[in-house]
Design a protein that fits this description.
Belongs to the type II topoisomerase GyrB family. GO terms for molecular function: ATP binding; DNA binding; DNA topoisomerase type II (double strand cut, ATP-hydrolyzing) activity. Its EC number is 5.6.2.2. This is DNA topoisomerase (ATP-hydrolyzing). The chain has helices at 57-70, 85-98, 146-154, and strands at residues 2-11, 14-21, 24-25, 29-33, 38-45, 75-80, 126-128, 134-141, 165-170, 175-180. It has 183 residues and is an alpha+beta fold. Strands 1, 2, 3, 4 and 5 form a five-stranded antiparallel sheet that branches. Strands 6-8-7 form a three-stranded antiparallel sheet. The protein has three helices and ten strands, in the order E-E-E-E-E-H-E-H-E-E-H-E-E. The chain has three domains: 1-54, no CATH class; 56-143, no CATH class; 154-180, no CATH class. A hairpin with a 2-residue loop joins strand 2 and strand 3 (24-25). 20% of the residues lie in helices and 34% in strands.
Amino acid sequence: LSTRVEAEIKRDGKHWYQNFQNAVPDDLVEGGNARGTGTKIRFWADPEIFETTEFDYDTIARRLQEMAFLNKGLTIELIDERVTQEQIELEEIAEAESGEARGDETSFDDIPDAGDTFNEEDDSTNVITADKKRRKKVTFHYPDGLTDYVKFLNKSKSTIHPTIVSFEAKGEEHEVEVALQWS
């Protein structure tokens, strides 16, 4: 499904890397000690398999947000580093209007801090990187899972009762998480 995949894993105090080219894995590489845990996957869709290899950022962001709601405490970060022709043209116009010569120099004082997180009022964050490319970055993290999802769904609605009714239960072969609020 892909021409290339890069996997970076932090687990059990170790940092691991593995790359794949056309479904053929490279050797698993131990990269040393790591703090924390997590997995980072970079994926390049194969144009011979997929009709289009242009991904819709908003569709992917919505799906990842749903996954974060359904997996309480999970943190998912989506970064879109693609640069559109329109962004390049706007940068060139802005530079021409300001009288700046186009070059590779960028003041790091002018760069917003990376690591901006999801904000319900503004769910997309453009961050300017050192090479002046705009990227979209969003982090989804919902420590209360479905309760956070109900809050999200009802944020612009008038609710009948202010408190979300929620509970969790575990059995031998199942787990249940419920969150309810009437609107």
